[in-house]
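From the methods appendix. Each design record in this collection lists the tokenized structure first, followed by the designed amino acid sequence. Records were kept in a plain field format so they could be parsed without special tools. The example shown here is representative of the layout used throughout.

RECORD:
FOLD TOKENS (163 positions):
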């Protein structure tokens, strides 16, 4: 397995993933199998796929057939989805295991709406993330000032049509 093909682990179960178009793509069968706890994950995904198509969901359209390693060690074309699509599919799975993801997505969505209304909240969130990562207050303030200065510079370049 190379650096472009890997395994993500969720609750002790493997989710195959591969690097494609500069982002990670995940096996839909693995995701739906873990969250639905279905004894037949392939069939569960097949049924869910038809239901999503009937609803007009673009999540199915955004799936790509990518080669992932199977349990026999060979690579096979597998339905894969990027992170955004995975979140959409997770929302369609009626399962207690999917519920924490759905609650988290609702919370994050609500927070982003609040940040659109009050952009200062986004800056506060950024600072808190840096604190959680262990950065000092001095480093955080320098980082924020650096972002502001860089943005002012690029805005000035745009005004002067610098490319």
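DESIGN:
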């Amino acid at each position: 397995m190379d650096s472009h093909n890997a395994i993500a682990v969720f609750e002790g179960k493997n989710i195959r993933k591969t690097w494609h178009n500069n982002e990670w793509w995940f096996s839909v069968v693995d995701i739906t199998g873990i969250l639905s706890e279905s004894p037949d994950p392939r069939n569960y995904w097949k049924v869910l796929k038809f239901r999503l198509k009937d609803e007009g969901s673009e999540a199915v359209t955004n799936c790509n057939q990518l080669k992932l390693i199977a349990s026999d060690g060979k690579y096979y074309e597998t339905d894969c989805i990027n992170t955004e699509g995975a979140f959409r599919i997770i929302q369609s799975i009626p399962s207690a295991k999917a519920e924490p993801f759905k609650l988290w997505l609702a919370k994050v969505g609500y927070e982003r709406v609040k940040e659109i209304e009050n952009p200062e909240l986004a800056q506060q969130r950024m600072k808190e993330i840096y604190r959680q990562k262990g950065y000092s207050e001095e480093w955080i303030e320098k980082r924020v000032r650096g972002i502001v200065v860089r943005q002012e510079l690029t805005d000035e370049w745009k005004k002067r049509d610098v490319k």
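APPENDIX NOTE: The first strand starts at residue 5 and ends at 10.
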